[in-house]
Amino acid sequence: MATDDMALLEINTAGIWTKSIEVIRANWRRFMFLCGAFAVIRYPLLYVGGGMVDLINAGLEFAFECAVLYVTCFWLITGTSKLGMRSLLRFVPRYLFLSLLVSVPSILYFLTVDGTLILTTSDIKDLAGDNTSLEHSMTLVGGLIRTIFALIVFLFGATWVPAVILKFDKGLLRAVKRGWRTLAFGLMGLLIGPFLFSLIVDVTYLLLGDLSIGLLVETGGGLTRLHLLFVLGALLGAGKLLIVNVLLGTVASRTLILGEERLRKDHIPGEDGLGLSAR
């Protein structure tokens, strides 16, 4: 990688958190509404379980993630909060396609190994029965497969989704080329952004979650405090999902701009430069 590319890489990755905070500050009303709606709808689902509830949760998370990603990408690329419905109508099916693509390998794995269609965590529990070690191992394997393919899909296909905002579309192959030319940037952005944040939040949740439940039991907090704990959990879950997807949208948007500029320098047919730089 050339020296100027290395300098550009350092500048872009260093600004991921800064730009993500700017996105949140510029769109805080939208994000507050999304988080509130997400928490209100999800709160009653915390008391029930089953495959249908898992599917409802998955659909709810998809809608929330897609909305946050679109707002983030649109603001970073265009510099305005006035959203475009035409690009949104193309943004959603592309994000849905990539989301389904990420899920396919783990589904095929369980179909091949166990001969069972596993779509939700409830399906894993039903299959494992009382065998908790089997349940944990299946959850771990499924999560690992999904994580690996999510990483691959993001690095090589993520820019295909926000490309619709720039009103040009050279297809998925162009996105793969952008991904290849920005592998280091994309990987570094994921590590210091959403991965690092998720790790910190999950570790904190494990420590404080068990502590909170322990204190609740010891003090005899009753149902009222338990309900408040669930409400707080729903709000914190929405907040975590919001920040993770703002970070993902920031990395994807800046990868799109950086990838196109590098392809232009390589004289790969496409646009004659975007005339833009990632905010």
Give the topology, please.
Layout: H1 3-14, H2 16-26, H3 28-42, H4 51-78, H5 85-113, H6 121-128, H7 132-157, H8 171-181, H9 183-219, H10 222-265
Helix pairs in contact: 1-9, 2-10, 3-4, 3-10, 4-10, 5-7, 6-7, 7-8, 8-10, 9-10
Task: Round the Cα radius of gyration to an integer and report it.
Answer: 21 Å
Class based on secondary structure composition and strand pairing: mainly alpha
What is the count of β-strands?
Answer: 0
Compute the number of helices: 10
| Contiguous uncertain segments of 5+ residues | 1-11, 271-278
Bulk shape:
globular
Q: What is the rounded distance between the termini?
A: 23 Å
Q: Name the beta content range.
A: under 5%
List SSEs in N-to-C order.
Answer: HHHHHHHHHH
Tell me which oligomeric state these chains represent.
Answer: single chain
- Most strands sheet: none
Whole-number mean pLDDT = 83
The residue fraction in helices comes out at over 70%
Overview of this protein structure:
It is a single chain. The protein is mainly α and 279 residues long. The protein has helices at 3-14, 16-26, 28-42, 51-78, 85-113, 121-128, 132-157, 171-181, 183-219, 222-265. It has 10 helices and no strands. The relative contact order is 0.15.
Quick overview of this protein structure:
The protein is mainly alpha-helical and 279 residues long. The protein is 79% helix and 0% strand.
Key terms for this structure?
single chain, 279 residues, mainly alpha, globular, disordered N terminus
